Amino acid sequence: MKYFKLLLLCIPVLSCVQQETTETPVAEVRRGVFTEEITEEGEIRALNSTVISVPRNTGISNFRIVKIVRDGSEVEQGDTLVWFDPQETQRLIENNEELVERNRAELEELIQSQISEIQEAEANLESQRISFEISKLRTELTSYEPEITRMEKSLNLKSSEQALERARLSIENTKKLNLENLTQKQGTVAQYERRLQDALNMAQNMCILSPSPGIAMVRSGRTVGTNIYQGNALIDLPDLSVMTANLNINEVDVAKLQVGQRATIRPDAYSDTVFKGEVYSIANLAQNKDYRSGMKVFPVVVKIEGRNRQLLPGLTVSCKIVISEQPDVLYIPIEAVFKDEMGEYVYVKVRSNFKRREVKIGAQNTDFAVVLEGLEEGDKLALADPFLNVQEAAQKNGNGNTGKASSTKN
To answer: Domain ranges in the chain?
Structure first.
């Protein structure tokens, strides 16, 4: 019975002393500049990219690729990217030559027909003019003739005058209509001549040249022997002079971002290399993170400073964006902060023991948290629960709760 009472007295003593059973890692409370930041993985892309496509409006329905640049090749301005089979172009040349010849012959025939038509109309006009002059002269000589005769000749004069006016209008309308038909036909001839010239130029250059330097990223299915329809994209040619890190930021953090905020970019393939940049654009509309998830994210583009040959499209990177900086604040490692239903707390080392202390935490990043209340510079904090092994040992021995409040790492 005395042994049982002694054991009951030892249990609260153990709870109050709270000695650690194993060596616990510690860290000091520091004062300095605290940087709040967002870290997200992304992908390297070019800010500007040119799409190389099959020529349009050439008269060729599809082009057969006989040679194409290797995917991922670095090219300079003027380098050849794609070579096409010239056979289809040769057939186009022959067809356009035939059309040009036929329409030139039709144009010449139209010109001759219009000349004959105008000559006939001018002859009719001259005939009507002579008839009118004769009627006019006869009317002037009827002073001494009977009234009915004068009236008859006056009517004949009016009729001749009307016929002359109709002849004049007819020749004017004929000339106007002929000019419209001639202009239309000349336009048709010129159109086929241009098509023929385009086909001749294409036959001499059955290839596509690079408009600028970059990395040739060949689209899927664009291989030798493939027939590609006009207008279809062949190659993406990113401009490597300005590169970006493209990120998807969750809807909780995107409100903290602003264009111009500083960032650091670390490629996974070159973990010892860090590049500087700044937020270039923030999307206004959210999108699903993937087709299986309902999580909303906002596309964000970070523009990378300078140019480096290591930065190639498609590389995975880790990007840190600086949200804010707070000078002269106390901060501690995030591992030192614990949380339960009572709030946030830490374990402060007092000589060889640890004591729980309530704290008020401010801004946090991936590594540190700002301390608003409860600690002073130089305090040493446990980076793990120093009494966890004590609780486990007590539970294994069947002694129940040690009297310490349960805690979980934040």
So the answer is: 18-32+327-409, 40-46+239-325, 51-85+206-237, 89-202
> What confidence tier does 398 reach under pLDDT thresholds 50, 70, 90?
low
Residue 205: pLDDT above 70?
no
User: What is the C-alpha separation between 53 and 229, in angstroms, rounded?
Assistant: 10
Q: Decide which of 1.10.287, 1.10.10, 1.10.8, 1.20.120 is the CATH code for 89-202.
A: 1.20.120
pLDDT digit string (tens) for 304-356?
A: 998 887 888 889 999 999 998 899 999 999 999 999 998 999 999 998 899 99
φ and ψ of 400, to 5 deg: 75, -155
The pLDDT confidence band at residue 397, using thresholds 50, 70 and 90, is low
Cα angle, residue 321 at apex, residues 318 and 327 outer, rounded to 5°? 130
Contact 361, 336 (CB under 8 A): no
Rounded distance, CA 203 to CA 286, Å? 48
Tokens read off for 199? 């086909």
pLDDT single digits (tens) 249-283: 998 889 889 999 999 999 998 888 899 999 999 99
| pLDDT confidence bin for 29, thresholds 50/70/90 | very high
The listed CATH number (2.120.10.30, 3.30.470.30, 2.40.50.100, 3.40.190.10) that belongs to domain 51-85+206-237: 2.40.50.100
Question: What contacts 228, CB < 8 A, 6 or more positions away?
Answer: 54, 62, 63, 64, 65, 222, 234
Read off the pTM: 0.55
In angstroms, rounded to a whole number, what is the distance separating the alpha carbons of residues 171 and 167?
6
CATH of 18-32+327-409, one of 2.40.420.20, 2.60.220.30, 2.40.50.730, 3.90.78.10: 2.40.420.20
Helix (H, G, I), strand (E, B) or coil at 267: strand
3-state secondary structure of 375: coil
3-state helix, strand, coil in the chain (%, to 5): 35, 35, 30
What DSSP state is assigned to residue 359? -
